[in-house]
Amino acid sequence: MPGKQALPQPDAARVALWSAFSELFLDTDISADTHRFVARQIIESGSPPETVLQVLWLEVFPALCDNLRVVAGEWAGFNDEWLSERVASIAAGQASAYAPFALVTVNQVIKAIETQWELCAACLPASYRDLRRPSNQQIKRVGVIGRVTARD
């Protein structure tokens, strides 16, 4: 699809970020321990704050958003190989990110993940807390393939 590009082969640090952020998309209660774990993984990745936000909102969010939009989403954890393939297929335009209909809207999931991100960012240096995430429209554009997008 024009305008879609495959991600470069991810390094171990990026895969670790995907895996850490995936914890925020499980159909479970998220604890302060999880927020600290995600923050630790972010620091250990050595990624700049701007990259971290891109990974969360433009790579992991489109790949896993629908898990929080269904009745019984994944709760035990995502396999790193599956997660890597899912992120890559959406980035390349080979898979759609958002189901057209679900019990919860994409905007509601954005708000929920924004809250979780703020709790993670509270465990990080100020440079992570001061950044603005992409707009809802930017987030929702990723992973939409030639069809009506998920309802707002």
UniProtKB/TrEMBL annotation:
It comes from the Bacteria. Residues 13-118 form the DUF7079 domain. InterPro entries: DUF7079. This is DUF7079 domain-containing protein. It comes from Halopseudomonas sabulinigri.
